[in-house]
Design brief:
It is a single chain. This protein is mainly alpha-helical. The longest helix has about 40 residues.
């Protein structure tokens, strides 16, 4: 049995074509990546500027010792402390400038460099803080308490270093949390 053809029905005519090609559209990278990269570069610049103050403290201590006498030198931290702190800040600041530029131009290696310098510079600074000997004789906060200023300041330096590493690490990896971070 043959089906009757409906005269009012539309008939499709033409030729077949190949399957459609789907071209994935790449979104622009998230703006937070650029903001964090610029922020890392600003921190690097400020850290390099801060290293100059650390180096300047050496000269200030020498001036204080020469004008007020050698007994003042016994109350000051040693010059190597300020020199080492300034050198670490200068080197870390330069690396922050480089890694911040890498993050700002959407390079994933900038994030890893930043995390590495945060870890290395904080550990180096922590080691310097723990190795310096405070020059004062009796440094107890309250006589007979057993808690001295050196222990208190080194403990807070360690705690501050750990908190700083966590905070900076979380801020640094923020671009990785976005779906289209666009990092290469």
């Amino acid at each position: 049995m043959v089906m009757p053809v409906d005269p009012n029905a539309t008939t499709l005519t033409g030729t077949t074509s190949s399957h459609p090609v789907i071209i994935p559209m790449e979104d622009d990278p998230h703006v937070i990546t650029k903001i964090i990269g610029i922020s890392i570069m600003c921190i690097g610049g400020m850290q390099m500027l801060g290293s100059l103050f650390s180096f300047g403290t050496i000269g200030l201590n020498n001036w204080l010792e020469s004008t007020m006498g050698p007994e003042v030198g016994g109350a000051l931290l040693p010059s190597w402390f300020y020199a080492a702190s300034g050198l670490i800040a200068l080197i870390a600041g330069g690396v922050y400038l480089y890694s911040g530029y890498q993050v700002q131009t959407y390079q994933k290696k900038g994030i890893w460099i930043t995390l590495g310098v945060v870890l290395a510079s904080n550990f180096a600074t922590l080691l310097i803080n723990l190795s310096v000997e405070y020059p004062q004789g009796d440094t107890e906060v309250y006589p007979g308490s057993g808690i001295d200023v050196q222990l208190l300041s080194q403990g807070t330096a360690a705690l501050g270093s750990i908190c700083g590493m966590l905070f900076c690490g979380i801020i640094t990896i923020l671009p990785l949390f976005f779906a289209n971070h666009g990092l290469r």
